[in-house]
Design goal:
By secondary structure, the chain is mainly α. It has 3 domains: 133 residues, Orthogonal Bundle (Fumarase C, Chain B, domain 1), CATH 1.10.275; 227 residues, Fumarase C, Chain A, domain 2 (Up-down Bundle); 57 residues, Fumarase/aspartase (C-terminal domain) (Ribonucleotide Reductase Protein R1, domain 1), CATH 1.10.40.
Length: 472
């Protein structure tokens, strides 16, 4: 491997001759051989958006020569178009604040811009990574801004994935609306519910979380770019923040705002922690839905078996014919990972001191990675599991007619205490509630049918109409 010699304030170092990154990136790569994980594409894009916007801003203000700005923009566009992605080599777990990643982007853009202008890689002339690519910037305003941009950019496909899952569940709710089954509370028999009502509630849960996420994301639209080192804006021209806002909206397609207090936005990770907490709340419900699907599909002979999941792969290497709820199990695992990511975000968000929180690299990675995996899991859950679910109506009817909880409909007629005795007798004798009512002559004919109308039990109201005097 041929090398070139580069210099920085710590001395000189041999850098691979073909590398677009430079000495500071290489030092970081050698310092942090931690995970083998590289920066997520969204994080790379976000920082490149900032550098591109800065070049255009400084060209407009006259602070940066047009040909240098144009070369930086062209280099940035190449990266955004998918080129040079292998040049971002700093591990996710790196020096605090994200200086290593910021310099990685600065060096790649400077070297490529110089190459476009006819200079050699590593020459850093006429474009210098600090003096030109990083002009009027600090890691301390670049990375908090990039964190917000990367999260908002990842949120767009994430919300689309949630829409897919919500609609899949709601569609099943409509399909299964006629299927009446036993409800369950405390994992014990409860009053009837329609299978469609259960699935509609699942879908509504996802839709409500989508709305919460959209609202929480509003806080992320405020940018502290232009704050430079400590939020005060030293070395940034007065028009810089507003021009950056204009160009960032243009390149990202995001709806952004100028932060009113750049010092506050630099000090506090509260906005991103709030957003991550809202993701966590969704994940808790998503995990519950996946568990409910597994429970409803348990069997096929010794479980509830009220729904049948699409078979996506053999379930056992030893038990022939076994099929597992594989997709729902995957969702569980993703949810547990996402909960851990949020815990990291919470702890890292608290770890700032005075003017800066240096834990931003791990916060950014965990928030963006969490959105990626939870979004992918939600879409896959819909497409490879929920869409193909079938109801076993015979099993639903079988469990329902044997449920002692049906005595609840009798309580307004015969009182709570008598209904409780009836439930115990049903369990002890194996008779159904209806059979016991007929046997004891408690109700008959149309009145019996009205009170024990299973569909009516799934809607608000008193079965059979007005209760008898002295009823419960």
């Amino acid at each position: 491997m041929t090398t070139r010699i580069e210099h920085d304030p710590l001395g000189e170092k041999a850098v691979p001759a073909e590398a677009l990154y430079g000495i500071q990136t290489l030092r970081a790569a050698e310092n942090f051989p931690i995970s083998g994980l590289r920066p997520l594409p969204q994080f790379v894009d976000a920082v490149v958006w900032i550098k591109r916007s800065a070049a255009l801003t400084h060209r407009e203000t006259g602070r940066l020569e047009a040909r240098l700005a144009d070369a930086i923009v062209q280099a940035a566009d190449e990266i955004l178009g998918g080129q040079h992605r292998d040049q971002f080599i700093v591990d996710v777990y790196q020096a605090g604040a994200g200086t290593s990643h910021n310099m990685n982007v600065n060096e790649v853009l400077a070297n490529r811009a110089n190459e476009l202008l006819g200079s050699a890689r590593g020459s850093y002339t006429p474009v210098h990574p600090n003096d030109h690519v990083n002009m009027a910037q600090s890691t301390n305003d670049v990375i908090p801004t990039a964190m917000r941009l990367a999260t908002l950019a990842t949120l767009r496909p994430f919300l689309a994935d949630l829409d897919i899952l919500a609609e899949s569940l709601l569609r099943k709710g409509r399909e299964f609306d006629h299927v009446i089954k036993s409800g369950r509370t405390h994992l014990q028999d409860a009053t009837p519910i329609r299978l469609g009502q259960e699935f509609t509630a699942f879908g509504a849960t996802v839709a409500r979380h989508r709305e919460k996420l959209t609202r929480a994301a509003e806080w992320l639209r405020d940018l502290n770019i232009g704050g430079t080192a400590v939020g005060t804006g030293l070395n940034a021209e007065p028009q810089y923040p507003e021009l950056m806002w204009k160009y960032l909206e243009e390149v990202s397609g995001l709806d952004l705002r100028l932060g009113e207090d750049r010092i506050q936005l630099m000090q506090s990770m509260g906005d991103i922690a709030t957003f991550s907490g809202v993701v966590r709340a969704f994940v808790l419900d998503l995990n519950k839905i996946a568990n409910d699907i597994r429970l409803l599909a348990s069997g096929p002979r010794t479980g509830l078996a009220e729904i049948i999941l699409p078979a996506v792969q053999p379930g056992s290497s030893i038990m022939p014919g076994k099929v597992n709820p594989s997709i729902a199990e995957m969702v569980n695992q993703v949810c547990y990972q996402a909960l851990g990511l949020d815990t990291t975000v919470a702890m890292a968000s608290e770890a700032g001191q005075l003017e800066l929180n240096v834990m931003m690299p791990v916060i950014t990675h965990n928030v963006v990675f969490g959105l990626m995996i939870v979004g992918n899991a939600s879409r896959t859950f819909a497409e490879r599991c929920i869409d193909g679910i079938e109801a076993d109506e015979k099993v639903c009817a079988y469990w329902l007619e044997r449920s002692p909880a049906l005595v609840t409909a009798l309580a307004p007629k015969i009182g709570y205490a008598e209904a409780a005795k009836l439930a115990k007798e049903a369990i002890a004798t194996g008779l159904t509630v209806k059979e016991l009512v007929v046997k004891k002559g408690l109700l008959a004919g149309a009145e019996l049918e009205d009170v024990l109308d299973l569909r009516a039990m799934t809607e608000i109201g008193i079965p059979g109409g007005k209760p008898l005097p002295g009823g419960g």
